[in-house]
Amino acid sequence: MEGLFFNIDNGYIEGLVRGYKNTLLTSSQYVNLTQCDTLEDIKLQLGATEYSSVLSDINETLSTSLIERKLNNKLIEEFTYIKSQSNSTLTKFLEFMKYGYMIDNILLIISGTIHNRDKSEILKKCNALGWFETLPTLTIATDLTSLYETVLIDTPLAKYFQSCLSIDDLDDLNIEIIRNILYKEYLEDFNNFAKNELPTPSNEIMERIINFEADKRSINISINSLDTELSTEDKLKMLPNIGLLSSNENIKHQLASITDLENLQVLISSIGIYKDIFNESTANSNDENGKSLEDFFYEYEMRLNKDAFTQQFTFSTVWAYIKSKEQEIRNITWICECIAQNQRDKINNYISVY
Amino acid sequence: MSGAANREQVFPTRMTLGVMKGKLKGAQTGHSLLKRKSEALTKRFRDITKRIDDAKRKMGRVMQTAAFSLAEVSYATGGNIGFQVQESISNNARFKVKARQENVSGVYLPQFEADINESINDFKMTGLGRGGQQVQRAREVYSKAVETLVDLASLQTAFVILDDVIKVTNRRVNAIEHVIIPRTENTISYINSELDELDREEFYRLKKVQEKKQIAVAAADAEAKAKKLKAEKERLEALESKKAQLEAAKENGENVKEEIKETEEAKAGVVEESVVEEEKEEEEEQSGDLVAQTEDDVIF
């Protein structure tokens, strides 16, 4: 039943995205990339892929950042196109996707405002995926009060600010804490949206992905905050209330209160899917070639994304595609970086699932 | 190096000679001291060159790891973290450079030391959501890189300063060795030769004076002799005339005989005296030559 009317509104988008998905680099293409000796070779290899159009007009000397920028431009182009073709629920869903990037952009501008940086320079650094019309107006505000009252209030993110932050917080709190509180609110809101408004297969997949995202953040926050003087209350504020870890009030509280790495590892390992995370990851050991926590997360996320394509008539394919593409850009950047810096022993640390 | 050009413009007197000798001695002492200084500095210089080489190699490695750890950060955080890092910097520097001075053979070399305040960490929160561990690791690696840079900076500064000082010292050593000492020596020999020249001139002058004197004396003697002879002659003539008178008067008496005898005796005495005087003069001339010979010996 759920697939019956799906194609009326979203058939084109799904077809488009699945078409895009086929252009994602495969393992063999990655292997070819890792064989390259120079960035020129990389360009040549990528010339045989979808990226040929964006890379062919590079006249300057190649650099990792240049390649990364070009690839990102393509991603943004595709996302903009998808978004312009979407309607109703899908549009809303895509808006939600953007919110995550918007949070980053807004915080960038807020921190720039605090430190009196050149506004136009900050705008250049914003992530284009998180671009929204009122973003430039954020830069006009010179102090935080006016920033909040005149600009933030009109952005789609105002609700997150409203529910968790007061104007005073903007002044005293560390920008990173604000970022994570906002992100928590965002994830919860997104999860709500996915659960209640998306049609059946989409909501299941998206819930899974969002919950994992929430867990990822919880684990990261609790590990990375070990050495900081954040109080348990502060940490609790940042941990999302969803996900396998934090939906359980008991575990969540423990996550926030445990102060040494070993106990934290025991706690996280007690959750089924994260059982192996510390066996595989060597985040706390000195083994340089081992997988890091991030690698584990990225890999798990990519598996989820790949799985998302197995279902038809879902919005989650768009999410999965955009995320896969992001990972692909990260992979290519990583390989370029390894080649440019002549650190070939780590070149195989990329994550490829297709 | 023509002798006249390469010496100081001085009056060749014994006093300047003394001054010049003092100057030469001072130059030689200064030369050996400077030479020693230059050697000490060169030793240090070589040491530093070696250490710079080591430090640069180390820096190459450290910088590479550092750059790579940054790549890891951008992979893990998936974006541009530079801005977050820039903005979270507080006013308390975690990494401070302390400078002190070291004295090497009178040259002050600045020495930089890294001073890390472990309690200050501005980036604790950075990457809280993701990539925090990579951020911390990159921070540590870069701290090490900066430490290496600080080491290298102090070596490099010392290198430049020492290089300058060694150049200056060597220039001085060479100047003393090749200009000042030869010139002073030239001046000394010039003064010596001038003094000898003066001596010889003086001696020759003295000799000339003596010669003139002798000629004058000889002339005076000859005149005196002539006068004497003339006087004698006159006396003789007078005696002769007296004799003639007496002989004429002989006939006049026996007493006259005795008078004739007396005058003849007187005549012989006068002739004897004049012969002795001539001999004396010859003797004087001989002794004068002897004095001249001994004087020559003294001079040469």
TrEMBL record, chain A:
What GO molecular functions are on record for this protein?
proton-transporting ATPase activity, rotational mechanism
| Source domain of life | Eukaryota
Query: Does the record bear tRNA processing in its keywords?
Result: no
Question: Is the Transport keyword given for this protein?
Answer: yes
For this protein, the record's Pfam families field holds: vATP-synt_AC39 (PF01992)
Entry's SUPFAM superfamilies?
V-type ATP synthase subunit C
Concerning InterPro entries, the annotation shows:
ATPase_csu/dsu_sf, ATPase_V0-cplx_csu/dsu, ATPase_V0-cplx_dsu, V-type_ATPase_csu/dsu, V-type_ATPase_csu/dsu_dom_3
Would you tell me the Gene Ontology cellular component terms? proton-transporting V-type ATPase, V0 domain
What keywords are assigned to this protein?
Hydrogen ion transport, Ion transport, Transport
What protein family does this chain belong to? Belongs to the V-ATPase V0D/AC39 subunit family.
Q: Which PANTHER family match?
A: VACUOLAR ATP SYNTHASE SUBUNIT AC39
Q: What is the documented function of this protein?
A: Subunit of the V0 complex of vacuolar(H+)-ATPase (V-ATPase), a multisubunit enzyme composed of a peripheral complex (V1) that hydrolyzes ATP and a membrane integral complex (V0) that translocates protons. V-ATPase is responsible for acidifying and maintaining the pH of intracellular compartments. This subunit is a non-integral membrane component of the membrane pore domain and is required for proper assembly of the V0 sector. Might be involved in the regulated assembly of V1 subunits onto the membrane sector or alternatively may prevent the passage of protons through V0 pores.
Q: Note the subunit structure.
A: V-ATPase is a heteromultimeric enzyme made up of two complexes: the ATP-hydrolytic V1 complex and the proton translocation V0 complex.
Protein name according to UniProt: V-type proton ATPase subunit
Q: Which organism is it from?
A: Pichia kluyveri
From TrEMBL, chain B:
According to the UniProt entry, which residue ranges have a biased composition of type Acidic residues?
A: 274-287
InterPro entries in the record: V_ATPase_D
Give any single GO term for biological process.
vacuolar acidification
- Tell me the domain of life: Eukaryota
Identify the GO cellular component terms for this protein: vacuolar proton-transporting V-type ATPase complex
Q: What is known about what this protein does?
A: Subunit of the V1 complex of vacuolar(H+)-ATPase (V-ATPase), a multisubunit enzyme composed of a peripheral complex (V1) that hydrolyzes ATP and a membrane integral complex (V0) that translocates protons. V-ATPase is responsible for acidifying and maintaining the pH of intracellular compartments.
Q: What name has this protein been given in UniProt?
A: V-type proton ATPase subunit D
Organism, by scientific name, is Pichia kluyveri (Yeast)
